[in-house]
Design goal:
It is a single chain. The protein is α/β, with parallel strands linked by helices. The protein is built from 17 helices and eleven strands. It folds into two domains: 142 residues, N6 adenine-specific DNA methyltransferase, N-terminal domain (Ferritin); 282 residues, Rossmann fold. It has a nine-stranded mixed beta sheet with strand order 3-2-1-6-7-9-8-10-11, sandwiched between helices. A two-stranded antiparallel ribbon has the order 4-5. Helix 2 packs parallel to helix 10, helix 8 packs across helix 9 and helix 8 packs parallel to helix 15. The longest helix has 29 residues.
């Protein structure tokens, strides 16, 4: 029997969404699909491990009853083969299976029970039966997969597809992979580092960090990955994403990063070598009520306006950086030039000389947000060459235009990364500006103040213009002569 390849798996998983489409909102059915995928995966691997242990030891108890012999222990009533025998109250049975899995596997606590399958209005038994039958058609044992990372990659594909389907809501849990790849390449995390995403969504930034280490042939297991996400459904998806990618050691906390940061050590904020995030653009109700008395002292540059939370996240990220750390955050362009409290915060950060780069991106890259955004790069330990400067790059012209969204191509990513790493000076594209120049601009970081983005007009060919004018005059004279002759034929005197 041929092994399951990525294209077949992606197609099969996406078909499962079609079973739910129409009866459940597009932004919601991802939770059910991911939940069943994870349940089937755990059950299949448990059975695979049990079969191997039984063959090796001839001891049924060790194979099926000893939790320590398995990566995840799956009790009988949580196993897929048990669920396939049921025809009634399937939602309740799946909920109980998930509860059992969490009870026997501490790392899954709260992950599977975040989704309630026992809602017969949305998920009648007939629908759940179709889903169980559909997932039963594929085996997710390790021995049946064509490559080790196939499930993680298929999971990423599903997140991307669900975000596309969900439209505006998709941006709440997913950042397009090309943008994630660009930001990770710019920050260039290395093995042995501590990396954090304080607004981690479904975990794409953390997963890409692992891919980055693999691409540069470093030990991807020798890195500490932390994240926090306030939406419980998205937090559960992130946890599953980590586990399906084999990143079991990632610490993903649930909760509001601004109001209640959870990544603490001895009551203090943990510090990281690399901090990376795509927080909600200009978040309203971000937590201004707690900022004035923040016990962690995160808002030393000032308290952001009530309806614009961008600099709340920026300041949190700065506060959790090690003295030699670097951070990259995706911001709307308004955060670069809005005045008032944000202007004062921007001034404070700039005067500390920790802003390394502002990189403008093309418009319409994000789900649910057509406005252009930028990468805001912080470096607490700039090189001697970069001190007293900020690197500006206007990357809005380079992209692949799509029907719904634009995309960064690989050549666009490489062009930006190359220019950033060399602090290049390229006309109408990128250059460094001194802090003195930025001061003269009243700390306004709007990219067109530093990069000439005007389009060059084509030079006028004077002789060609004269020739075209002469031609128009001849054509006009010919038309007038025809009209005169016509009127004469009718008896008019001209």
């Amino acid at each position: 029997m041929p092994k399951l390849d990525l294209d077949t798996l992606e197609s099969h998983l996406w078909e499962s969404a079609n079973i739910l489409r129409g009866s459940i909102d597009a932004s919601d059915y991802k939770n059910y699909i991911f939940g069943l995928l994870f349940l089937k995966r755990l059950s299949d691997v448990f059975q695979e491990e049990a079969d191997r242990l039984l063959k090796e030891t001839k001891n049924k108890k060790i194979a099926y009853e000893e939790p320590d012999e398995h990566e995840f222990f799956v009790p009988p009533k949580a196993q897929w083969k048990y669920l396939t025998t049921l025809t009634h109250n399937l939602g309740d049975a799946i909920n109980k299976a998930n509860d059992l899995l969490e009870e026997h596997n501490r790392v899954l606590e709260g992950v599977l029970s975040a989704t309630d399958f026992n809602d017969k209005d949305r998920l009648p038994d007939t629908t759940l039966s179709k889903l169980i039958l559909h997932f039963s058609k594929i085996s997710l044992r390790n021995e049946d997969l064509s490559e080790p990372d196939i499930l993680g990659r298929a999971y990423e594909y599903l997140i991307d597809q669900f975000a596309d389907d969900a439209g505006k809501k998709g941006g709440e849990f997913y950042t397009p992979k090309e943008i994630v790849s660009l930001l990770v390449e710019i920050l260039d995390p290395q093995e042995g580092m501590y990396v954090c995403d304080p607004a981690c969504g479904s975990g794409g930034m953390l997963v890409q960090t692992v891919y980055h280490l693999k691409s540069v042939h470093q030990n991807y297991k020798n890195i500490v990955l932390h994240g926090q996400e306030r939406n419980i459904g998205t937090w559960a998806i992130c946890k599953m994403n980590m586990l399906l990618h084999g990143i079991a050691g990632a610490r993903i906390e649930k909760g509001d990063t601004i109001r209640e940061p959870k990544l603490l050590q001895k009551g203090k904020l943990m510090e990281y070598d690399t901090v990376i995030a795509n927080p909600p653009f200009s978040l309203k109700n971000w937590g201004i009520e707690v900022a004035g008395n923040d016990p962690f002292g995160r808002f030393k540059y000032g308290i952001p306006p009530k309806s614009y939370g961008d600099y709340a996240f920026v300041q949190h990220m700065i506060s959790i950086l090690k003295p030699s750390g670097r951070a990259g955050v995706i911001l709307p362009h308004g955060a670069l030039f809005r005045g008032g409290a944000e202007g004062k915060i921007r001034k404070g950060i700039l005067e500390e000389d920790i802003v390394e780069a502002v990189i403008g991106l093309p418009p319409n890259l994000f789900y649910g947000a057509s406005i252009p955004a930028c990468l805001f790069i912080i470096n607490k330990k700039k090189s001697a060459h970069n001190k007293g400067k900020v690197f500006f790059l206007y990357g809005a012209r380079d992209f692949l235009q799509g029907k719904k969204q634009n995309k960064l191509r690989q050549e666009d990513i490489e062009k930006i990364v190359s220019a950033y790493r060399s602090y290049a000076v390229i006309d109408k594209y990128c250059r460094s500006a001194s802090l003195d120049e930025i001061r003269r601009n009243d700390y306004n970081l709007n990219i067109p103040r530093y990069i000439d983005i005007t389009e060059q007009e084509s030079p006028i060919d004077v002789q060609q213009s004269i020739d075209e004018l002469a031609k128009l005059r001849r054509e006009r004279a010919s038309a007038e002569e025809k009209v005169e002759n016509y009127l004469k034929d009718l008896g008019y005197k001209i």
